[in-house]
Amino acid sequence: MVKEDNKDTKGKTESKSIPKSSAIAAKADNKNTKTVAKDAKAAAKSAKTAKRNAKAAEKNAKFAASETKKKYDRLELPGGEYKTNLNKMYRGRQKWIPENPKHILSFMPGTVIEYSVSVGDEVRAGDTLLFFKAMKMNNRMLAPLDGRVKAINIAAGDNVAKNVVLMELE
Amino acid sequence: MSDDKKILDLRQRMLRVFGGGGDKAVEKQKAMGKLTARERIVALLDKDTFHEYDMFVKHDSTDFGMQNKELPGDGVIIGTGSISGTTVAIFAQDFTVAGGSLGYMHAKKITKIMDYALNMRIPLIGINDSGGARIQEGVNALAGYGEIFFRNTLSSGVIPQISVILGPCAGGAVYSPALTDFVFVVDKISKMFITGPEVIKTVLGEEITAEELGGARVHAETTGNAHFFAESETECFDQIRKLVSLLPASNEKPAPVAKPANPQKKTNITKIVPIDPTEPYDVRDVVKSIADNSEFLEVMELFAANIVVGFGRIDGRTVGFVCNQPLVLAGVLDCDSSDKAARFIRFCDSFNIPIVTLEDLPGYLPGIDQEHAGVIRHGAKMLYAYSESTVPKVTIILRKAYGGGYIAMGSRHLRSDFVFAWPHAEIAVMGAEGAANIIFKKEITEAENPAEMRKIKIAEYREKFANPYVAAAKGYVDAVIDPEETREFITHALKVSETKHAGRPNKKHGLPPF
């Protein structure tokens, strides 16, 4: 039974242990009656085990403390909030910004060859705005809508990365 | 016989080839912290088993002064040998010879050993360490790459193909490893990219080092191109040897069987998994408490760590584990984890390796970025892989199995042969909170104290549906088991399915959502 006790304290500090099947429990009971019968020896033994129990409890407390110290991130999901670690991808995710149709973006990394319009010009949808060299091709970029050229952000001849605002319409 | 002139001549010729690109080039290679191609082969294969072919191959290029250049072995070593008794075919590019550049004869040697591997039905290992195409040989070099890619595809699913990146692997060259089953990289030595830092600088004006652009860590963590990451070449060879010992030589042969061994009784399975479904734990500890000797060879450890895949043995036989990892992102499925699992499942299916699934996930990761990145398309790969596979499949539901995640993770409906659940399993269409909010919307909003009512209804839902018995009542779960009996149930299930015979309709090939 002493042994059983020891296990129980461990079980409590960890998490609720799964109930043992009745067969195992009966076996443990059997052992228990035997140990009680040999009371003199058992007394000496129980003193020893009490010491051992105290040590185990101390160890468990230490373990529990280290467990609570372990810091996890929190992740809110439809099913509830989970303790877990976030990964690089998740941490690095950026807020989504809806695309502005008035911004003319570089659709690939490349070079502005020349602008066909200048700031203040009225443009109609389908008009050529600029020539953009990307991947060995000279691409003609067209106005997506009717409007006026508000600003030109990149000088002709400059290299740009993908998704850079080359020009703004209004 | 040693004074036989012909034999002396042969020895001299061999010595010249063994010297590679000469002492200076070898010194340079060593300075980079790299072994030579020949040293690598010796380190990787069983002692004295390597047999080399095409040692005296010569290039026939005459342009740009190439006619005067002698390139020992044309910059690549090919041959056969064995790893832990398994016969393998191997090629190793020699960076000391013209930077390991790939010319026509160099490619011919590689394709020759690839043909051997396929015809003999033995695994192929390719050690890549090359500056790229030998520009002097023009389109012949490109033709060489194409021939290699074609053979990679031909061999795919017939023999295991392993690529080891031990140096630069740039431009077209990267696609041969990408077509193979497992890519090994070593920190600070491996570099893979389509366009290098110089090109990026001239085109974009952006500066980045080769290491930051396509170093080992990048491919192991971010891109998912690499399957195994090692700190040193020696560690890398150990990983390869371990992997080869677990794999069959071809899709027609069974994997080597080891002596059955119990898991080391260091951990108690019920103590690993907390009962509270929102508490994390490392699912690899569960795998280790199930697998023989507690040994687990994890594949793609650093990429999409919210799912864990890898090989272990049960009762001596190789199995593939696919497990949700509550320790990372609560174990959700997302684009990357679906890709990772789908590819692994297909590998196992191709090579007749049974799949054991350990399931504990709250569902799919919500988010605009996920939806726009195509989580539908990527997630579908996993459903496809599980449905398509005909190898024995055993699924254990440890805790949570919600919604689409329940279906995706090797459910009965995708033809798992055995589905077992732990008593704490929650198998339902969605989590109790979400479900209660929808089903009892009226009761909750009309109540005097809606917050109180919500709590009551959540508890009511959890009591009724968040358990394994609703699924068990329909036979979707074959047995609700004591967690301590997990290994025993898996072992028995695998024994029962050893003679499994499951067919799928004949077709040229299926159309997984690539």
Characteristics:
heterodimer, A: 170 residues, four-stranded antiparallel β-sheet, 4 helices, rod-shaped, B: alpha/beta, eight-stranded mixed β-sheet, elongated
Question: Can you walk through the features of this model?
Answer:
The complex is a heterodimer of chains A (170) and B (514). Chain A is an alpha+beta fold. In chain A, 38% of the residues lie in helices and 28% in strands. Chain A contains 4 helices and 10 strands, in the order H-H-H-E-E-H-E-E-E-E-E-E-E-E. In chain A, the strands form 3 sheets. Chain A has a 4-stranded antiparallel β-sheet with strand order 3-10-8-5, with no helix packed on it. A 4-stranded antiparallel β-sheet of chain A has the order 7-6-4-9, with no helix packed on it. The model of chain A is unreliable at 1-28 (pLDDT under 50). With 514 residues, chain B is α/β, with parallel strands linked by helices. Chain B contains 21 helices and 16 strands. In chain B, the strands form 2 sheets. In chain B, strands 1, 2, 3, 4, 5, 6, 7 and 8 form an 8-stranded mixed β-sheet that branches. In chain B, strands 9, 10, 11, 12, 13, 14, 15 and 16 form an 8-stranded mixed β-sheet that branches. In chain B, helix 4 runs parallel beside helix 5 (139-155), helix 13 packs parallel to helix 15 and helix 17 (432-439) packs across helix 19. Chain B is elongated and about 100 Å long. Chain B starts with a helix and ends in an 18-residue tail after the last helix. The chains are: A alpha+beta (170), B alpha/beta (514). The A-B interface holds A 14-18, 21, 72, 75, 77-90, 93-94, 96, 109-110, 159-161 and B 203-206, 221-222, 270-271, 274-280, 304-306, 326-332, 334, 336, 362-363, 365-369, 372, 400, 402, 423, 430-434, 482-484.
